[in-house]
Design goal:
- With 270 residues, the chain is of the alpha+beta class.
- The protein has 2 domains: 138 residues, Fructose-1,6-Bisphosphatase, Chain A, domain 1, CATH 3.30.540; 114 residues, 3-Layer(aba) Sandwich (D-Maltodextrin-Binding Protein, domain 2).
- The protein contains 7 helices and 14 strands.
- Strands 3-4-5-6-7-8-9 form a 7-stranded mixed beta sheet, sandwiched between helices.
- The chain is globular and about 50 Å long.
- The N and C termini lie far apart (43 Å).
Length: 270
């Protein structure tokens, strides 16, 4: 295997290791506490899965950096950073709703080389290697060919702040629905939302203020499946900051942005 293939292989092993912990604790006896708000939950499954992922990767790449949801890690001189969400969809997990996953990506000099997302409840492994396409359980996936809003099934999410971001999201939902689209879903796991765009299950997705560990792997998977991911002005996403994200099959990207920005604070650029 070349280096890129090795990176994907290790990311797959790490994501599946997290999945084992998800399976062990799902609907079981885990510890629960809150973070920034009463609805921002943290379980022992989150922290144990992150520890397992970091430990596995460090055995192979002890000099690499880590950017993860639950803990901060000492910086090294390496140009490689693993971006990890050990359990995306924690609130679903706590409520017994089987829509959650692990997400592991490797970034080098701002470019994502490998991305893996694992849904243990469905045994669905989404992964991508830069320049080599996207796959689901070993089979190539592509975005769908929907080219009008009316034929689109969209996905969105709600930012943890219950302020203007939520209001704007709901306003956009209303505008989309009034265009008689197929429907809008709120699944509660951003990494899986991106995978569903990549695999053609949805035509597009948008959400306020996603963290890097929410979108790092999924962004690559969408792009390698032929889709598009950007900010609200079609700009490239920074790999290491929270950001507004829009993902699509590419064909309805600007149509989505026009609606989203019509209720937002700024207008979309041509």
């Amino acid at each position: 295997m070349n280096d890129s293939e090795i990176y994907v292989d290790i990311a797959v092993k790490a994501a599946k290791e997290a999945g084992k912990i998800h399976k062990k604790y799902f609907q079981g006896n885990y510890k629960l506490k809150t973070k920034s708000a009463s609805f921002d939950l943290l379980t022992s499954a989150d922290t144990e899965a992150e520890a397992a992922v970091v430990s596995l990767i460090r055995k192979h790449f002890p000099e690499h950096n880590f950017l993860a949801e639950e803990n901060k890690y000492p910086k090294t001189d390496s140009e490689y950073t693993w971006v990890i969400d050990p359990l995306d969809g924690t609130n679903n997990f706590v409520c017994g709703l089987p829509i959650f996953c692990s997400s592991v990506a490797l970034v080098h000099k701002g470019k994502t080389l490998a991305g893996v997302i694992y849904d243990v409840t469905r045994d669905e492994l989404f992964y991508a290697q830069k320049g080599k396409g996207s796959f689901l359980n070993g089979k190539p996936i592509r975005v769908n060919k929907v080219n009008t809003i009316k034929k689109a099934l969209l996905i969105t999410g709600f930012y943890y702040s219950r302020g203007k971001e939520v209001v704007e999201t709901l306003d956009a939902v209303k505008k989309f629905l009034f265009q008689h689209i197929l429907g809008i879903r709120r699944l509660g796991a951003a990494a899986l939302d991106l995978c569903y765009v990549a695999s053609g299950r949805a035509a597009g997705y948008w959400e306020y203020e996603l963290s890097p560990w929410d979108f790092a792997a999924g962004k690559l998977i969408v792009e390698e499946a032929g889709g598009r991911v950007s900010g609200r002005h079609c700009e490239e996403l920074p790999w290491d900051k929270k950001y507004f994200i829009v993902a699509s099959n590419g064909k309805i990207h600007r149509l989505m942005l026009a609606v989203i920005n019509s209720v937002g604070r700024q207008k979309v650029r041509a």
